[in-house]
Amino acid sequence: MKIAVIGSNMVDLVTYVDQMPKWGETLEAPSFEIGCGGKGANQAIAAAKLGSQVMMVSKVGDDLFADNTIANFAKYGVDNRHVKKVTGCSSGVAPIFVDKNAQNQILIIKGANNYLKPVDIDEASKDLKQCQLLVLQLEVPLETVYYTIDFANKNNIPVILNPAPAHPDLDLEYACKCDFFMPNETELEILTGLPVETLEQIEQAAELLLNKGLKNLIVTLGSRGALWLSQEKRVHIPPTKVDAIDSSGAGDAFIGCFSHYFVQTGDIQIALEQASLFAAQSVIGKGTQSSYPSLEQFEQFKKSITN
Ligand code: RIB
């Protein structure tokens, strides 16, 4: 059973801040960490850490970060044969700022991720056809995302689209061709133009989006859990209360874990419950991929919260 992630990789430059400087001001921040990130890579590593067979289709630059990113996929058993270098280009990088409440602000410089093109899907097509799930985000060109969705539909492979970061030009007809459309509440707000402060408002915005013809809409809500809406169902997955220190990459942890359990069980409810727990565990660690537990650590965490 294989999962393919077709998407981004970035180098995360994470600064922990007491407060952000004003324009023109210099402020000291307490600490800094560098790690492998990118929404696509994070989702791939999360699923791989749980034991899924994962393949990555992605682009790195030809700088000092590239080999480390390729080696990082190998370290976690992710098939990196379709991670290619782009000559004369930088790798994707993401300066991230995390505050004392574990909230994050992220800038992305896409670099080589801009060069993941439909031809790369063609080149990987033989291997992609062996997969049981394709997972997409929006840190690579939209034309590649659309092309992959059509490929998945043609080959009867279920597909997840995580519309992150939100893209004003996203064609919702393509969202409707996906089995799962998985925004967070900020992306839901941008996609609908509706407020998403309260759970009630989120439900209203989600209903509006679902009515465009989506199959399964899953809205990740951070410390408020997740919402699953389909044409038949309305389900709220409750949050797991933890003392969060860094929420960056928690949405990716959720999607990677959901992918793993969905492919394992075919059961959306089970996959969502596991994903919610896995994302909760990820926010008690620092960084993105570095905060994702192994299967063994995840099992221990689940035992610890039920005791
Ligand atoms: O979702 C978190 C990710 O967003 C980070 O790893 C960063 O690289 C950006 O892609």
TrEMBL record:
**Quick one: a GO biological-process term for this protein?**
D-ribose catabolic process
UniProt keywords, alphabetically: ATP-binding, Carbohydrate metabolism, Cytoplasm, Kinase, Magnesium, Metal-binding, Nucleotide-binding, Potassium, Transferase
Requisite cofactors: Mg(2+)
**What family classification does the UniProt entry report for this protein?**
Belongs to the carbohydrate kinase PfkB family. Deoxyribokinase subfamily.
| Binding-site residues, substrate | M10, V11, D12, G38, K39, G40, A41, N42, E139, D252
Mind telling me which residues the site (Important for substrate specificity) is annotated on?
Answer: M10
Q: How does it assemble?
A: Homodimer.
Coarsely, its chief localization is cytoplasm
Q: So what does this thing catalyse?
A: 2-deoxy-D-ribose + ATP = 2-deoxy-D-ribose 5-phosphate + ADP + H(+)
Cross-referenced InterPro entries: PfkB_dom, Ribo/fructo_kinase, Ribokinase, Ribokinase-like
Which species is listed as the source? Canicola haemoglobinophilus
One Gene Ontology cellular component term attached to this UniProt record is: cytosol
Q: Identify this protein by name.
A: Deoxyribokinase
Q: Where does this one sit in the cell?
A: Cytoplasm
